[in-house]
Every structure is written in C-alpha cells, then in structure tokens.
Design a protein that fits this description.
Layout lengths: L3 H8 L8 H11 L1 E7 L4 E6 L4 E3 L15 H12 L5 H10 L4 E5 L4 E5 L5 E6 L4
Antiparallel strand pairs: 1-2, 1-4, 2-3, 4-5, 5-6
Length: about 130
C-alpha cells in the first residue's frame, strides 16, 4: 500500500491548481482510490483498496468555515485556482469562505465533490485528463 511519505513527495510537485490532474494520476498509480480533504485544517484521509486508510496531520492553522455556503463564490475560487492564479492555501481559504467543509477527490471516476458542513454536495467537477 501507499505511505504518507509517498503522498507528500507527490504533493510537493503541486504548485497550483493547474498541476492537480497530474497529482491525481500519480496518487491513483500509488493505489489511492479517493481522499477526503478537510478545509478547516488541511487534514486528509486517503483510502485505498480493502478500506486501507491513512490520515495526515493538519497542514495549516484552523480556518473558520462560513455557515453560509456560496456555490458562485466556490466556482470563482475554483476557476482562478485552476488557471494557476492562486496557491493551495489561498484556495483553501477561499473554499472556507464559500462554506466548504471538505472535498472528496475520487481517483477512479475522476471527480471532485465539494461539500457544505451539512454534508450536502455544492459542486461536482470532472478532473481533466493529463
């Protein structure tokens, strides 16, 4: 199975949202089926075959998650991040302001689903091919 060190090594190559599709392909090759990223602190839970899971530590100081979710605000943050205009932490801050509690990145069906604190999906995006 995969290790957190392997995941961190792959993540170190991501400089902006433009690098995300390659990142997903590399995680998939490691055996990650999906991961949940918790916006409040950047903690991720990676899941592989047979329910194998690894959890990372918090990646940054806690961010408050807005109680009011804004799909339009999230879509704008996604657009500029995917264009390489923002770094990862800035995107996480913007996602928190848009009311995103977590997102789930699915390696097998190549989607990312963004959820509000009640667990409702806000936006589902297809991950572009590399």
């Amino acid at each position: 199975m995969f290790t957190l060190d392997q995941i961190h090594e792959i993540h170190s190559n991501v400089k902006s949202g433009a690098d995300f599709p390659q990142y997903v392909q590399e995680l998939k090759a490691l055996g990650v089926n999906y991961y949940d990223l918790y916006v409040a602190d950047g903690r991720a839970v990676y899941t592989g075959a047979n329910g194998f899971q690894l959890s990372s530590e918090a990646q940054y100081p806690a961010l408050p998650i807005s109680e009011e979710s804004s799909i339009d605000q999230l879509k704008h943050a996604l657009l500029i991040h995917q264009q390489g205009q923002t770094d990862y932490l800035t995107f996480c801050q913007q996602a928190a302001q848009a009311g995103v509690e977590k997102w789930t990145t699915h390696m097998l069906d190549l989607t990312v689903v963004y959820y509000d604190p009640a667990g409702n999906p806000l936006v589902t995006e297809a991950i572009p091919a590399v």
